[in-house]
Batch of 3 targets.
Target 1
Amino acid sequence: MRLFRKISLSSAPFYASLVVITSLAFFIGIFWAINEYQAYQESIDNIRNTYKSQYEVRVKEELDKVVELIDYRRRQSALRVELEIRERLQAAYTIASHNYRLYKDESSVEEIRSMVVELLRPMRWNNGRGYYFSGRVKEAEFELFADEPFFEGKSGSEFQKIVGRDVVGDIIRMISEKEAGLYRYVLKKPAYPGRSFPKITFVKYFPPLDWFIGAGIYSDDLEETLKQEVLARIQTFQFGKDGEVFCFRLDGTILTNQNERLVGRSITTLVDTEGQKYGQALYQ
């Protein structure tokens, strides 16, 4: 018995058309499936790229917020310090003025100077970082330098040889022009060779004693205090589901991280679960 009947000549076109249509349908189906798959992949890639782009923007925004915070805190700190040393100087100026009024008729200028010097010498502020100094304008020399008595009695030229800048001359020129003002310089102390101490001072002229009176503070102390305040604030920053902000020094030492065990380590030692040294990449 034959399984297939012989195709007649009259039915051959029908079967040929059927084969053609079936083949076309098959290839069209394959093309449609491929096209749909490509469209699906493009959609997934677009979603992934869009999410990545949005997250990158979010991360940058968060970082910009931190930078803005640091800049704001620095500006506020500078304004606060300037206001404080102005107020402290005014307090010293008031002490000098009060004592001059009390003793001008019974004591010499030299005696009043000595009296005021010893009143100001032990006075400190800003957790002991702030101090007073004074000097004679005509003689161009320091008479009081509470934080470093070594400089007391030193002339402007002697002071310049030590610190490399005519600080006394600058102060005298400034108070001659406007009686008072803010003055910054870098102090070098003989007891600490190779080290520099940035200072911010406010100085005012006191005519009755022909004095300049100043209040000073070391700006690196202020920077350290500000840094600790900012780092403590950054340590609390979080965003999104698992976003965090962390800091490290230029030498790679981690200063803040949500994982406190990492603080103090070098960022270059950090690796991910696949052993990739992402910390080294971040540092570079």
Target 2
Amino acid sequence: GNVNGIDLDFFSNKNISIEEKTHLKLKLGISEIDFVFLFVGRLVTDKGVNELVEAFSKLNMQNSKLLLVGPLEPALDPLQSNTLNQIDNNSNIISVGFQKDVRVYFGISNCLVFPSYREGFPNVVIQAGAMELPSIVSNINGCNEIIIEGENGTIIPIKNNDAILKAMKKMIHDKDFHKKLAQNARPMIKSRYEQSVVWNALLEEYNHLISQLKK
């Protein structure tokens, strides 16, 4: 889980130039009119990647892309064979493996999709919000604390590709909804998870515990 907050100076769109975004889009074959769904994390069953890939495959929209950023772990929690086949053969699914710096990938995307089965407190959802991305997340601890339904993202049931598909369609087609979530994303992270906010909350808790011990 996250106990240190997030550095909003580091995770900021201001640090990603238009040239960097344009170069990466050209490299990955993403056009200016594509709506890009982003997943960041290990490509394993436990992260909901099977359901995500199946839902995106059913989306079947010409101007949409699914960008997968993270390593495959076939020895630990392997994906289904049909999922791997879709990743390899669907031209609208782009898998780039592990990336040390994910900020530019947030910068070229429109929405994070994170349908994990279980988490502690997922940094990637906080990072996406800091980078002004709305999120589609599963209804699990951590995710359902960071995301407030209809404010900075949407919350769906776990292990449900139909729910993922429905949420993705809404993000694409309901432009006012997507715009509202995107505008709220960074301010909501700033107000709750900026490092100074977290540090002050920890200090207050420590001082409270110390005062209790002195009684």
Target 3
Amino acid sequence: MSSSIPSPTSSPLLSADCQFCSVISKTNGEDPIGSANPCSGWMVMELPLPWTEERFDTDPILKPIHDLFHDLYAQGIHIAPMGIARDRDYSTPELARVVYYRRPAGPFAKFEPEEYLLPAEQIAPLVRVLLLEPESKSQFDPYRQPPSAIREIMICTHGNVDVACARFGQPLYQILKKEYAAANSSLRVWRCSHFGGHQFAPTLVDFPTGQVWGHLEPQILPTLIDRHRPVAELRPFYRGWSGLGKFEQMVEREVWMQRGWDWLTYEKAGEVIEQRSGQGEGLDRVTVRLEFVTPSGVKGCYEAIVRTCGNVTTAVNSGGPLKMVDQYEVTELNQVH
């Protein structure tokens, strides 16, 4: 988590000659696939506003959380932290929501949510126990919520990290909240803190699958949310599944495009089995294996080659320098069993 998580609606002004990073990225055709940060779980926490650097250094609720995640990162514990803003439709007075999306062992289809409602000053102790002392978590049982089938959409509106997230994330949040969540009691839509990749704004995470999306447009939301139209319509917007690494994400997209919506129910695991560098700079080829298990227990495996296929100009930050980034293609995709 950044040491500075501002109000989701804040949007500092840029100089007149600055360009939004996400506009540059999208205009130049940067493919977002492979940009989802792989992690062993997501810790979603309802944190009091405003989210300023000063408060993370001094606030008695925010500072212990900030310090804890710095300690976890130093220990090599790759749990992705995410702040969410209180919402009048979802929040409970005097209590804060924490949802730990745990990555199951072995192949899996979705992260497993563990939800708590507790006083805000108990967030840091709960997170510490969940991640470092899970055998002691029964002390928090009075705050634990019953399992549910809630689908959570976390959309980044984190303007102080990059203005593009506020500029493009906030309007999309309003559409998702008013037109989709309002009509579906099993869907919650939240404003959240930055989780990487603001050059792909507007960007969101879909839980419990843990799929990450970017360069989103209002007209694609019926396909993304309702899942009634061909999955191929989502291809340009898919950043990848956070249950896999960069190159495995690229292969997973190709398989999903072939297999359709049922693919979301398959338990999956992937690995890079060979990586070769080219004669000059850059990547020559990566061999990826992607294994799956269907809900009925049928096992299968794909292998594919990922290669560089050129590059495009992008900007990682709005107002920042331009840079060239490699683009990739998946070739020789075969189901081997």
